[in-house]
Amino acid sequence: MLLKDLISKLSLTVIGGQSSENIEISGIGSLQSAGGGEISFITGAKYAKQLEKTKACAVIMDYDSLRAILPPDLKFIILDSKNPYLSFAEATQIFKDASLEKSGGNGDFDGGYFIGKTSVKGKNTVIFPGVFIGEGCSIGDNCRIMPNAVIGNNVIIGNNVIIYPNATVYDNSKIGNGCIIHAGSVIGSDGFGYARGKAGYVKIIHTGYAELEDNVEIGANVTIDRGAVDFTKIGSGTKIDNMVQIAHNVIIGKNCVIAAQTGIAGSSEIGDNVTMGGQVGIAGHIAVGNNVMIAAQSGVSGNVKDGEIISGSPAFSIKEWRNSVVLFKKLPELFKKIKEISKTKD
């Protein structure tokens, strides 16, 4: 696309450099790797040295915060933004949309996939070869369902949804508008529910469903179980990293971010705007409030109030946890002193 079109879409201000009217750009790269036909971005002063050697034709930055340390004789156009990381994110969206248009074509692949007779799909939705779609499904407009994805029966999928290769969406699941499900993820599988009898474990057949509200993104190899008798729900705007397990009947609020290898046990409820680091473990049947931050590798075994920042296993206030870590490192020294004191008393 033309650089001027990208500038217009992102509402950026051009500072210095050559005219941007007819410069063609093909993508986005780091300051180190970007070629002459690509743009880049910088988010802080520690990367300023890289501006001297970058080959990018334009760089998104907060000009006011960097102008004093910019190297002389810049060879690129400055695209001024008060939030360069956000502008970078929005630019990637624009290039992604263009890429999907190229890869998707204008129609379906005749005979390359199966769709049930009672299922319907919307306008400009592209279904790639190897896809299976069961009966009674409704698929919205402008969707992309990539090769070998499996969609069960009675699944509702909104508009502008992307489902990547080898993802599986079980029966009765609901996928909102603008959702992204990455490769290998499973939405709506049975939860881990068994009753113990004399002859062994009896499986609880899960009759509920899983629901993703609008603009949810699910990373690769994520598993989200269906509800046992009602539902598991992921709130709108929530983003989930790769290899996360969400058990049956869990409810996650809006605009949460959950990093890789996190596990949330059954029937727990997570509030809005919650941030979880990698490898967090959430016990079952507990409530985590709104605006909570949970540090990586924390184990949460009890309810958490709104706005708390916690760490450790079991998790507690991060301020107290940091003090405890300092003391823990000193335990060998303290123990040695205690032994010496004991000897002197003897």
Structure explained in plain terms:
- The model has no long low-confidence stretch (mean pLDDT 90).
- This protein has three domains: 3-104, 3-Layer(aba) Sandwich (Udp-n-acetylmuramoylalanyl-d-glutamate--2,6- Diaminopimelate Ligase, Chain: A, domain 1), CATH 3.40.1390.10; 111-223, UDP N-Acetylglucosamine Acyltransferase, domain 1; 256-346, UDP N-Acetylglucosamine Acyltransferase, domain 1, CATH 2.160.10.
- It has an eleven-stranded mixed beta sheet.
- The protein has 346 residues and is an alpha/beta fold.
Radius of gyration equals 26 Å
Integer tally of domains: 3
The CATH topology assignment of the largest domain is UDP N-Acetylglucosamine Acyltransferase, domain 1
**Continuous helix count:** 4
Mean pLDDT over the residues: 90
- CATH class categorisation of the largest domain: Mainly Beta
What is the CATH superfamily classification of the largest domain? Hexapeptide repeat proteins
Class derived from helix and strand content: alpha/beta
Task: Note the overall shape.
Answer: flat
Helix content: 10-25%
User: N- to C-terminal separation?
Assistant: 84 Å
The number of distinct β-strands equals: 37
Give the spatial strand order of the biggest sheet.
8-11-14-17-22-25-28-31-34-36-37
- Could you give a short account of the major beta sheet? 11 strands, mixed
